Amino acid sequence: MLEALATLRALNRAVALIAGGAVLLAAAFIILDISLRQANASFGGTDEISGYVMAAITVWGFSYALLERAHVRIDMVRNVTPRPIRALLDLLAMTALSYVAIVVAFRAWPVLERSIANGSRANTPLETPLWIPQAIWFGGLLWLAIMALLVTLLGCALIIRGQFANSEAAIGPTGEGD
To answer: What would the mean pLDDT of 45-64 be, rounded to a whole number?
Structure first.
């Protein structure tokens, strides 16, 4: 079971590396544009493109944070309960996160679909076809929904088997000592 979690973590680390590469490329693009401005030239649109990059890495980073157990939780009650109750509270938190991720991804599709159907473009000098950044955004939301659902199901299976320590390692928050 924990091998499946390790595989999901590896996939999300790869996604995080790609996102990091996108940030570096955006930074290089911005630096080059600023340098060109000194010679009274410019690519134009660096603010728009960097905004799209920031939105994309944020939404794709949600699943990385999920698998690294970096999402914030209020642990006041959780920390004073026995391990089986903590496991159920962790499962409740993961179920809620999965539900929200699935609903948001489900609601995001019509936005992308409408942009494709209407041929919508950004109201900017680049006139970017909106389906491009929205498809990346939707993909990140869908990825989060899938990852959250898989992690929730994994946590549920571990709890059913009575593997509370493993469930805490899979779906519990990271502690101060981690």
So the answer is: 91
CA distance 28 to 162: 50
Q: Is the pTM for the entire model greater than 0.85?
A: yes
The values of phi and psi at residue 129, to 5°, are -60, 120
CB 130 within 8 A of CB 177: no
H/E stretch holding 30:
helix 2-37
Tabulate helix, strand, coil % of the chain (nearest 5).
75, 0, 25
**How far from the centroid of its chain's Cα atoms is residue 106's Cα?**
15
d(C-alpha 53, C-alpha 99), whole Å = 26
Distance, CA of 171 to CA of 7 (rounded, Å)? 15
